[in-house]
Amino acid sequence: MTEQKIAAGILAADNEKRGNTLKADYEALGDKLARGGISIEAITDKVAQFFVAVPSWGVGTGGTRFARFPGQGEPRNIFDKLEDCAVIHELTRATPTVSLHIPWDKVDDPKRLKSHGDALGLGFDAMNSNTFSDAMGQERSYKFGSLSHTDAATRQQAVEHNIECIEIGEALGSKALTVWIGDGSNFPGQSDFTRSFERYLDSMKAIYKRLPGDWRIFSEHKMYEPAFYSTVVQDWGTNYLIATELGEKAFCLVDLGHHAPNVNIEMIVARLIQFKKLGGFHFNDSKYGDDDLDAGSIDPYRLFLVFNELVEAEHRNAENFHPAHMIDQSHNVTDPIESLIRSANEIRRAYAQALLVDRKALESYQESNDALMASETLKDAFRTDVEPILAMARLNAGGAIDPIAAYRSSGYRATVGKARPAVAGGSSGIV
Amino acid sequence: MTEQKIAAGILAADNEKRGNTLKADYEALGDKLARGGISIEAITDKVAQFFVAVPSWGVGTGGTRFARFPGQGEPRNIFDKLEDCAVIHELTRATPTVSLHIPWDKVDDPKRLKSHGDALGLGFDAMNSNTFSDAMGQERSYKFGSLSHTDAATRQQAVEHNIECIEIGEALGSKALTVWIGDGSNFPGQSDFTRSFERYLDSMKAIYKRLPGDWRIFSEHKMYEPAFYSTVVQDWGTNYLIATELGEKAFCLVDLGHHAPNVNIEMIVARLIQFKKLGGFHFNDSKYGDDDLDAGSIDPYRLFLVFNELVEAEHRNAENFHPAHMIDQSHNVTDPIESLIRSANEIRRAYAQALLVDRKALESYQESNDALMASETLKDAFRTDVEPILAMARLNAGGAIDPIAAYRSSGYRATVGKARPAVAGGSSGIV
Amino acid sequence: MTEQKIAAGILAADNEKRGNTLKADYEALGDKLARGGISIEAITDKVAQFFVAVPSWGVGTGGTRFARFPGQGEPRNIFDKLEDCAVIHELTRATPTVSLHIPWDKVDDPKRLKSHGDALGLGFDAMNSNTFSDAMGQERSYKFGSLSHTDAATRQQAVEHNIECIEIGEALGSKALTVWIGDGSNFPGQSDFTRSFERYLDSMKAIYKRLPGDWRIFSEHKMYEPAFYSTVVQDWGTNYLIATELGEKAFCLVDLGHHAPNVNIEMIVARLIQFKKLGGFHFNDSKYGDDDLDAGSIDPYRLFLVFNELVEAEHRNAENFHPAHMIDQSHNVTDPIESLIRSANEIRRAYAQALLVDRKALESYQESNDALMASETLKDAFRTDVEPILAMARLNAGGAIDPIAAYRSSGYRATVGKARPAVAGGSSGIV
Amino acid sequence: MTEQKIAAGILAADNEKRGNTLKADYEALGDKLARGGISIEAITDKVAQFFVAVPSWGVGTGGTRFARFPGQGEPRNIFDKLEDCAVIHELTRATPTVSLHIPWDKVDDPKRLKSHGDALGLGFDAMNSNTFSDAMGQERSYKFGSLSHTDAATRQQAVEHNIECIEIGEALGSKALTVWIGDGSNFPGQSDFTRSFERYLDSMKAIYKRLPGDWRIFSEHKMYEPAFYSTVVQDWGTNYLIATELGEKAFCLVDLGHHAPNVNIEMIVARLIQFKKLGGFHFNDSKYGDDDLDAGSIDPYRLFLVFNELVEAEHRNAENFHPAHMIDQSHNVTDPIESLIRSANEIRRAYAQALLVDRKALESYQESNDALMASETLKDAFRTDVEPILAMARLNAGGAIDPIAAYRSSGYRATVGKARPAVAGGSSGIV
Questions:
Q1: Which of D264, D61, C291 is nearest to A191 (CA)?
Q2: pLDDT tier, B423 (very low <50, low <70, confident <90, very high otherwise)
Q3: What sign has the CA pseudo-torsion A409, A411, A412, A414?
Q4: Which PANTHER family has this protein been placed in (chains A, B, C, D) (predicted)?
Q5: Which is nearest to C125 in space by CA: C289, C26, C297, C253?
């Protein structure tokens, strides 16, 4: 039996209140979709089967280099974090797995962690290594790089850390390693672009060699931050080179916030699918840089356009296409659990809308260069208010019609606020 | 007698080595400039009279939200920081003042601080308040804003903090208060733009009321970070409105890294001068966002173009024009003292180059729309290698011909590395 | 009687086909809104009263510096253009006025133009002057600027052209002049920022002096293009200075595509409203620069957020708030009439969605810093599929339920394709 | 004997005036460089051997979609253009080849063109095809694409045009074909990203098949414009895929103005060199978009950093490294000949500065992570005023010490202004 963090009675009571309205809305939408030849049940089933992993680090309050303002009941460790993740999944039924970050989530006994996950009904998604900061007691510093460091021993330490992440992941049932590094430079001349990338590739090859046969390795590109002049894995072009150099288990991870201003991200997604190297996503939203805001909160149409590419690829049975879906956000001004609930819903919303696109009509408009009707075909799907589908998918799976409301009713935050000591915020004096 | 942090003998020895070469280079450049009717001595004198304030927080190693990697001999407090600042001034003779940050630099007895500054030959530039992070023991949090917070008591607390900064500044001999706030929102709808700005203006008026008669108040705009959807003081347009609403002692501060991509910053500088509201600068450089890199390290021509506006304004005796020059950088991969030395030199370099512009020719080309020759007139000045002028200005004032070399010779970093305990770096787990 | 360009029978037949479905959808939405205490009829009425002007130049196929690809039946002159504009209004009932561009739309006898408009049921919105290109036979060139040119006679010519635009507008019943200039520079040094702006202000004052008492003058800012280094009226800060310098009949025009990357445009709108200087809009959408794409086609949520500010200002009875709504787009790959129909609908859509925002709830969440619920309050309104409201507003006013479909049924494009000779496209060799 | 467009006497007289000063400056710089162990003669020789191609379309005045303002003596055809190009080379001795654009430069008899080039001492660089605009009388339109068009016959027409370009090029002695297309879309949904790219690759393979054995084909990426939502060849990642799919004669062309804001272009250059696919450059400068301004006029340090990568690659004998150097600019406010003279000089300047980098020191600082000294090593080279080297290289090769001055003295523009009829400018009404 899965342990429930939100009392069944509270959830049932909240759903009870909203059941009739949902039923009416679902039927009205069903009628409307039926007119267009679409079965709402079929869409609801597909949505119910769409899952996204929650990042363990996402349930704690984030911050910026200027300050961090913790909230009530901040999780103290990975066990607390798993409980918070369980709440998200109980209410959304969309997030059955958690993605860990080592060393932040390192424990003495991974088996105990696995049991804790099992008890909460949670599995373990991709492992994330960390060589962008120095762990306590670490012998060599990553101040000037990790996998691409000029010093061979530092690179070796970083390689070994990644291998350790694989080993922990094997104990937990994970099947993928995500490698994001901050390596780069702050000033022209500081690094040699070519030698740095050669060293990076050598290190990655050493990690790749240790990758279990049924695992995938995801490399993640990012334009800038923490490096402010050059970044070793700066864009999808470099990321593609990496995946190609490493081999068939290597894929590119796309974080929606890691691109230059104005870049057409959905097109990058299409290219990586076409060349069989799309590994998956770190979902979030942004207005300026790597803002790590809640998915779909700034530009919901862009999120939809990304999902349009994913559904299109499904539709044409694209080869080697089985992307991993993960959220990667920083929650600075909201309750992290609420932001993750909302984001999981938004991601499913974009997926549901993309499923509604009339692909036959779209292709026909594209072929005849009817730009207006082609674009309206996407817009028609995007404009559909699919909330009844999302709610029904949650309800059917034992979740909440309105997960935020149910969460607030449950008093979970206040409860953990009592159990978990308050955390001091403030500034590091890093400006 | 001013206390010297760099032994006079070391400095003299280093200068001795380089004296003859400097003399030759200075003469060659002097001849070349003389051919164009320019007196190298006049330029050297002007450069020698150009000063820029060093930020107290700049002498510690900075960081990002991902990690901080401290260096050797990190300053423990404002007294250590002042000593590091003294080193910079001893070698560059360009940075006689320090800009403090409260509460980071708050001490029980400002008079003791003043004496320490006096002993080191340092004065105190603009005071900086901090309401973008929560100080230890602070009653109300700035998580959701400070001067624009919806809660009146929180705004009051922020106002009082600024007034306290003025009071400390008065004790230290400062003549200006710089107000930069992180207030804003991360999501559409989170804040009402209009009411937030009304509250901000009310708070600023309360601070302004307390401003001593011979002080100026500088408001500083920034496009984003720490807020990722909207920022209350987001650009120079809003900043200008603030300065106008407040009164004649209120001016706009321009931080070179706080603008949208591609924005023409030198034009903003020109507009603020023309409308008599340019207060001064936070100098640094950036490639992506508020990268806080060393001045002139990414786009030295842009720095020159800013100084071209300043010299042009001097040239035509622009009204109400007496900008404050301050550095505001984050030094993550260099010795902060070295980066500040370099930056002070770069700022003087841009000033010296701007002084070389043939303004009569420039105006004539502008009037006749000779775009090519007008732009070449600026380039001619920019291309001049003015290092001999900068070095001679330093040498004449008792500084170093090559301040980085002299600093390295002095062993200062190793010395303070012994006296000051090592600082742990690592990650906050904020991603 | 207004002359109809689309046969009444065709329109009626198309509406007939769609009437029942619309009725059902409208009722279902009405029920849903009623549950939230909102009267769908009240919203429909407000939408029906919302109008946006169509630009005369928008009904011709646009182009880029690389090429222009004309379509069938390109309008030959302003009389043809008015007929195309009439089609848009007949079908949408949202665009009763046309905005002219002089000299492109200059005719010998403005009264005849007025009569033509009257016959088609069209009025005349803001006049647009053109000093960014040289008209045939023009004495002095605007190659190096117009209102800010270094040459007084050229400035005078540009001033007189603007006065002529006012005079034509008076004959046509227009009540506003929009001034957008391309003045600026391509190279650092080419122009003196300060003197250029002084000259611009002087010229504008001369125009302002001639402005009829019941007219408004709108200045329009733009970051870049056609000038590629500096632009005299480059952003809202400068635009605000202009409106303030000129006087109470002067206002700022916001073109949604004229901003730096990532800029928060809705916040600029809010600031201009707060300081009583928002004149109106040039609606369009963009992904990169001034792309002039169909409104809402790239980022529909951004368009909604702009309207959220407008409705908020209405809601609180903001002073001096009566913005002009105009479309300004370039239609390169669609039938311009279709793009304008769609855009008019999208603009009304954003308005309708903004009307649905629960402003009481929003304010309460804002006051209590409930960032998540505040942002969801906006999203709830945005997610509502208001198409039934838009369609009913059109239908009630005599327009089309589905204006694109009705337009295509009408065969209008083929008809004018016969009457109007084909236009050669091709490239200017300008690259 | 090569025909001279600038009378030898005029050139000699201008050089005579400046010879002594140059000699003095060259000696002073030589002494300075010698102190650092560098032979000024060796650098001068390398600079003298560095050439860059001039684009035939660059000698006419450019324009924007808003207007074009022609100058005096606009070239009427490719024969006139070649004469203008000859002037540039006579004075700079840096531009011995011209890059043609078909059909703009198409002539009945390529042999006559070849003879004209021979007579002027000019060769022919890469051929440029044009499928981004419709040529007069062209059967099928490129309005909706060319090499990636949905219509097979249109694609075939575009393929054949490219093959024709190769054939013309063969007659002229060219050895490369540059393919830049405007294909893309203006609205989400308009094109299928994947199918478009498949079609593009098929078309390119058909062209590649026809490529002579000793030719190279360059594909050029561009973020946007003329397409404003998606572009088929949008970035270097896609460009790399193209070059890889096509084969060993296919390379990537980098235009400095075709990137997203803030992108680190020099790093892209390094990656393409490392993976053996850098074909060459279209040099220009930009502040906002594809501004096509004079090389080095906006950010000279960026141009230097690109050349730093090129010299570094030379230094380590990078494999498959022999980049083509071409200018691609639009001259809207200057005499095009002057802008091209200046740009050729700026490109050589960046090369000369990059040659001065102390690569041994740089590598050592990089290896030891001495970020400050590494970056200062680049800056030291950049700060060197290498104008005497450039001037001496020109003088030694028979060019001008000050080519702009000599050009102005020659009265060439006035002379051709008499022979070539004035061209009307004005606006296309495309906005």
A1: D264
A2: confident
A3: positive
A4: L-RHAMNOSE ISOMERASE
A5: C253
CB-based contacts of A243, cutoff 8 Å, min separation 6: A219, A250, A251, A252, A277, A279
Q: Do C141 and D431 make contact, defined as CB atoms within 8 angstroms?
A: no
Q: Per-residue b/e over D407-420, b at no fewer than 16 CB within 10 Å?
A: bebbebbeebeeee
C10: number of Cβ within 10 Å: 17
Which of A292, C196, D299 lies closest to B262 in space, CA to CA?
A: D299
Q: Is B235 on the interface with C (CB under 8 A)?
A: yes
Angle, CA C93 vertex, CA C91 and CA C95 arms, to 5°: 105
Q: Where are the domains of chain C?
A: 8-419
Whether A75 and A84 have beta carbons less than 8 Å apart is answered as yes
- DSSP letters along C129-182, please? ---SSPPTT-SS--TT-STT-SSHHHHHHHHHHHHHHHHHHHHHT--EEEE---
Chains B and C form CB pairs within 8 A to the count of 156
Nearest chain C Cα distance for residue D346, angstroms: 14
Residue C262 touches chain A, beta carbons under 8 Å? yes
**Furthest-apart CA atoms within chain D: distance in Å:** 66
d(CA D65, CA D60): 16
With bands split at pLDDT 50, 70 and 90, how would you rate the model's confidence at D423?
confident
Give the CA radius of gyration of chain B: 22
D385 touches chain B (CB under 8 A): yes
Angle between helices B236-246 and B193-210 (to 10 degrees): 50
Q: pLDDT per residue over A192-234, tens digit each?
A: 999 999 999 999 999 999 999 999 999 999 999 999 999 999 9
Q: Is B320 left (phi over 0), alpha (psi -120 to 50) or beta?
A: left
Find, among B288, B209, B284, B197, the residue nearest to B249 by Cα. B209
Q: Report CB contact under 8 Å: D226, C66.
A: yes
Decide if D186 and A260 are in contact by the 8 Å CB cutoff.
Answer: no
Smallest CA–CA distance from C265 into chain A, residue: A287
Angle at C202 between CA C199 and CA C205, to 5 degrees: 150
Closest residue in A to D375 (Cα–Cα): A189
Question: Cα–Cα distances in Å, from B202 out to B156, B227, B239?
Answer: 10, 21, 15
B378–C contact, CB cutoff 8 A: yes
Query: In whole angstroms, what is the distance from residue C259 CA to residue C263 CA?
Result: 7
pLDDT digit string, tens, across residues C234-291: 999 999 999 999 999 999 999 999 999 999 999 999 999 999 999 999 999 999 999 9
Among C194, C260, C379, the residue with its CB nearest the CB of B270 is C194
pLDDT in tens, C389-427: 999 999 999 999 999 999 999 999 999 999 999 988 766
Q: Give, for C184, the enclosing helix (H) or strand (E).
A: strand C184-185
Q: Are D426 and D67 in contact (CB under 8 A)?
A: yes
Fold category of A8-419 in CATH: TIM Barrel (3.20.20)
Residue D144 DSSP SS3? coil
Q: How many residues does chain D have?
A: 431
Q: Is B137 exposed, middle or buried (0-12, 13-18, 19+ CB in 10 A)?
A: exposed
The answer to whether B343 faces chain D, any CB pair under 8 Å, is: no
